[in-house]
């Protein structure tokens, strides 16, 4: 998960305050950013059969994308300004953020080695000690689905920062699976 977090940070040109591992998938309480991406582990699934002489598993993970509600401008009638409006140019929308995260995690062949960038990053760590971590990761992440937009109000937000009754974040959760890892029984620990 740490390598996924670092990879996403690098691909999105974000700092560590914008992309973090969060157990519940909600923005960090101390985040002052307008955009926050929470990475959470959703477990592994065993794909090897009982007759195989190795373990083989796929990772499931979720990227929860959050944009501050104040980043969605409205006009004088409180109608959301369309994304084509000149006032919105340069503002990252939730849909654009979703496309960027999907591209960063589920695509992106490396130019030099022909491997997927994220797979190569993980394999560089694994190859340093194959007996501990098992054999190489073979497959990239696959995008599974996205949740409907949801709202989140930080329970620790200071009074006066947000209008009463308005959510402080609007977000979507993207689910991925993949990064198949295989490990022989002789190296299992």
Fold and architecture overview:
Helix 1 (2-12) packs across helix 2. The chain has four helices and six strands; from the N terminus they run H-E-E-E-H-H-H-E-E-E. Strands 1, 2, 3, 4, 5 and 6 form a six-stranded mixed β-sheet that branches. It has helices at 2-12, 94-106, 117-126, 130-133; strands spanning 19-21, 35-46, 54-68, 141-146, 150-152, 169-184. With 189 residues, it is of the alpha+beta class. The chain has a single domain (2-68, 94-187), classed as Phage tail protein-like (STM4215-like, 2-Layer Sandwich), CATH 3.30.2000.
Short synopsis of the structure:
The protein is built from 4 helices and 6 strands, in the order αβββαααβββ. The protein starts with a helix and ends in a 5-residue tail after the last strand.
Low-confidence stretches: none
Instruction: Describe the largest sheet.
Output: 6 strands, mixed
Rg, nearest Å: 19 Å
In DSSP terms (H or I, runs of 4 or more residues), the helix count works out at 4
Shape: elongated
Draw up the topology in text.
Elements: H1 2-12, E1 19-21, E2 35-46, E3 54-68, H2 94-106, H3 117-126, H4 130-133, E4 141-146, E5 150-152, E6 169-184
Parallel strand pairs: 1-2
Antiparallel strand pairs: 2-3, 3-6, 4-6, 5-6
Helix pairs in contact: 1-2
List keywords for this structure.
189 residues; alpha+beta; STM4215-like; 6-stranded mixed β-sheet; elongated
